Amino acid sequence: MNTLVIAGGTDGIGKALAQAYLGRGATVVVIGRNPERGRHFLDTARAAGAGERAFFVTADLSLLTETSRAAEEIRAAFPTVDALVFCARHYRSRRTETSEGYEENFALFYLSRHLLGEALAEPLSRAEHPVIVNVAGPGAGLELVQWDDLQLSRHYHGGAALGQGGKLNDLLGVSYAEQHGPAGIRYVLIHPGVTATGFSGEYDAGTLSHIRSMQHHAKPVEAALPPIIAAIDEPPAEALSAYVEGRRIPVDTQGFDPAAARRLRDLTDRLLAGSRPS
Ligand SMILES: NC(=O)c1ccc[n+]([C@@H]2O[C@H](COP(=O)([O-])OP(=O)(O)OC[C@H]3O[C@@H](n4cnc5c(N)ncnc54)[C@H](OP(=O)(O)O)[C@@H]3O)[C@@H](O)[C@H]2O)c1
After folding, report:
1. Is 192 near ligand 1, meaning CB less than 6 Å away?
2. Which of 11, 57, 64, 70 is buried most deeply by CB count within 10 Å?
3. pLDDT, tens digit, 9 for 90 and up, residues 241-274
4. Residue 278 Cα to ligand 1 middle (Å)
């Protein structure tokens, strides 16, 4: 492993992964929104003697413009990227739109992963064993997708937004593997299981008490790393694969329906082209 890019690598699973790979001699590029956390990542790396291999790119990945700018910076500085890991997420109990007019969870959890994967496909394709690891929640059914209202403008619930986001990432994996699998890029969807992390988000009182309980009782971050590290170090032979807490799950099921993946891809292309579907 030479160069690893982690979107959402300043806290939780992404941060632990960044530190693990710095310790193993890799070059690690972390994308995050919070410059203080970025400085802390760089300071910690310097203190551990890995300062010259640690890089931080400040970007709010809920904004398309910032996501594209971050990808450009990375492309300019790193001609080859061996692994791209998606860990950024931010829960919202109340529906929030970004300054670009997208529902925030949809923009951060789904659109940024779509954009970064596409923008970094070229540097990835130069690696010997390139892999994208999408840490989300694979395996649920397609009924979680509100096809006529992907940004949940009518019936928003934070949990529903997160659940749908996980499903959209499954379908993103299907499309990406179809398109970039022939170039050798492997796409691995990973559900880490409930893990005690920062749980970035803004929560109503009821949800917050549930989060506090999970932070107390869930497994430690280090326990979530082995399946992710295995996928990075030895990407599976198949273009697309999915794991739930280290257990491989089939990707030829209804939840990974190629027709649904194409439908999402079309909707996404139209959305990004500026012609919002009704
Ligand atoms: N923890 C669990 O129990 C669990 C369960 C199932 C799936 N997962 C998945 O595992 C992944 C990692 O989760 P986690 O719990 O480790 O996350 P976390 O501790 O909440 O950390 C989230 C990361 O995302 C970054 N982030 C949040 N909003 C951002 C934005 N707008 N732009 C850029 N970066 C942003 C945060 O950094 P800044 O605040 O510095 O921006 C932080 O580095 C997620 O994809 C999550 O869906 C986690």
Report:
1. yes
2. 70
3. 999 999 999 999 999 999 999 999 999 999 999 8
4. 30
